[in-house]
């Protein structure tokens, strides 16, 4: 029975070692997941921090917006008419306000539309420097991941503490994404002032691009080159320190070192994308000269 007890004890120890081992694996996987930048993009309901405040959506005319909940079906509709219909009552001046202690929620006055890895985070972060800009913290991914959750869900991201604030969000990623983006832009931004975030090379043009965007978004030109410095290590512009704050570059998952691509591969890629680029120039009415 002594042997049996020892055996059982050993068995138990092995079991607990195993569970510690698996817990560590889980922790490291999660850590790696976050370090690779994915956690950033998982949306958190930043405006809905305290359920106890019983935030209610109130239209300007005093109607309770929550009774008008509509659930768009992402699978049955394109980003076009369905959304357009639902947004027919939307306009920057037809704002919703949220009765809670965090200020009022506003409809977006500007939207950043961008493809994956198009540099939309940089544009968002740089626009955020502008004193009249209020932007969501994490990207809601409404149009590419959570469209079927409906506008009520999306509304939780409409937060701004200042009436004139602008909310910037990022929409439209996916297959054939550049065209979907542009279609989205056409269908969605017919009422809001829209920032067209297209840049051939964000490396050189971040700051001026931000200025350009701010100008087109109806903002005073406040953000200029003097807000940035070029970080040699990162190979990208970063925010200059203000007062006692430190210089701020985007996280490790933005502006990563890229492998050397053989020139013949680059040529083949350019050939492949040429007709798509032409189609894109036609859609936007602008030649970006990506060749
Ligand atoms: N200032 C600055 N700092 C860092 N990175 C910059 C900057 N400006 C543009 N970029 C480019 O942005 C790329 C990431 O784009 P996104 O933010 O749109 O990526 S994501 O699709 O949301 O994951 C990122 O892609 P990678 O270089 O592959 O990391 C950069 O090429």
UniProtKB/TrEMBL annotation:
Binding-site residues, 3'-phosphoadenylyl sulfate: 254-258
Annotated region described as Disordered, given as residue ranges: 64-91
EC annotation from Swiss-Prot or TrEMBL: 2.8.2.-
Disulfide linkage: 238-249
Domain of life: Eukaryota
Residue ranges of domain Sulfotransferase in the record: 108-165
InterPro entries reported in the protein's UniProt record: NST/OST (IPR037359), P-loop_NTPase (IPR027417), Sulfotransferase_dom (IPR000863)
Keyword tags: Disulfide bond, Glycoprotein, Membrane, Transferase, Transmembrane, Transmembrane helix
Tagged with keyword Signal: no
Biased composition (Polar residues): 65-79
GO molecular function, one term: [heparan sulfate]-glucosamine 3-sulfotransferase activity
Regions that span the bilayer: 20-38
Pfam families given in the database record: Sulfotransfer_1 (PF00685)
SUPFAM superfamilies, per database record: P-loop containing nucleoside triphosphate hydrolases
Keyword Transferase: yes
Similarity comment: Belongs to the sulfotransferase 1 family.
Protein name according to UniProt: Sulfotransferase
Organism of derivation: Tetraodon nigroviridis
